[in-house]
């Protein structure tokens, strides 16, 4: 399984690095305003170099057929950022806030029409059917480092649909990399996404904070039920 993971992500490395680089470049102005004592160009190079060392360590959880694979990859971006900034003397709280605020800043760089379209798509039958099927696949536990989740049907009043995660691939990976303390801040980045897409996220417990599961509940148009700071 490890060989398969290394082969998959090594093959994907040029695209993975390019995606991260494009995202970082969209946020250059934010870097300048947030860390005035650090050069944005140098930071971007360091982030990319650190990410490149993490790519071969990514656990194989089912390539593009895994709907949460991108969540794992983007969380690894945050891990790379964390390691670089820690070496530069920043605390986990400082880096966590930076990661949260950078997600907020990144969202506003996307065209409003794209945000509206994706907001609509997240509540379509097609989207929910994809995630129902994916949830059933995770319960087979074919990949031990994968997410394990249950799709929760909504009642249309309290919430439209939801997920219960009993196992988290990001948590497993961060623990293997000695960085579980960053995970609550990764979870918190769901807040600005929910606000931007009017998804009405509500959670009462998360694995990252010691709960037995992560209970995501979404209600279109509802005020997001979580706030920063966590």
Average the pLDDT over all residues and give the rounded result.
92
Which series of helices and strands comes N to C? HHHHHHHEEHHHE
Low-confidence stretches: none
Backbone CA Rg: 18 Å
Classify the helix fraction into a percent range.
55-70%
Class computed from helices, strands and strand pairing: mainly alpha
Q: Quote the beta fraction.
A: 5-15%
User: How many helical stretches?
Assistant: 10
Q: Provide the spatial order of strands within the biggest beta sheet.
A: 1-2-3
Described by the principal axes of the CA atoms, the overall outline is: globular
Distance between the termini: 36 Å
* Topology, number of strands: 3
Major sheet attributes? 3 strands, antiparallel
Total individual domains: 1
Structural description of this entry:
- The protein is mainly alpha-helical and 230 residues long.
- It has one domain.
- Helix content is 56%, strand content 8%.
- The chain has ten helices and three strands.
- The chain has helices at 2-26, 28-34, 40-54, 69-87, 92-107, 112-121, 125-138, 169-176, 183-188, 190-197, and strands spanning 148-153, 161-167, 214-218.
- A three-stranded antiparallel beta sheet has the order 1-2-3.
- Strand 1 (148-153) and strand 2 (161-167) form a beta hairpin.
- It is globular, with a radius of gyration of 18 Å.
- The N and C termini lie far apart (36 Å).
